[in-house]
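Batch job 17 of 40 flagged for manual review because the log was empty.
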Amino acid sequence: MTILIHLLIIIEIIPFTWVNGGRSESFAIQLPISIINTVISIIGGVFTLFVSKNILNKYQRGITRICWFFVILWSVGFIQQLLGTPFEKMVCSFILFLGVISNLRMAIEKKRVTIKLTS
């Protein structure tokens, strides 16, 4: 969903003033931000696929820490979205809330697996 929103911004279907708290003064300023956010979202999606497949068991403790870091990061992002534009409050905050829940679930589930492996 995040990738779709940024692609819609890049192809100028969604106005750039609706995101980034409305702070971008021009499309030229918003374009690199949207491209970077799209790349980061793709990397996050790949990470989520690896975590869900449970492929990297020997790196479980590190993966759990990364998941908890994402919980904190997405929670801060959620608060920022609530302080943003109406579009961010209604659409982006909902997407981030789902991300917080998803990352929290991955962190908790993987932590249980880590405890079982070390016991």
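Reviewer: the log was empty due to a logging misconfiguration, but the result itself is present. The chain has a mean pLDDT of 84. Unflagging and moving on to job 18.
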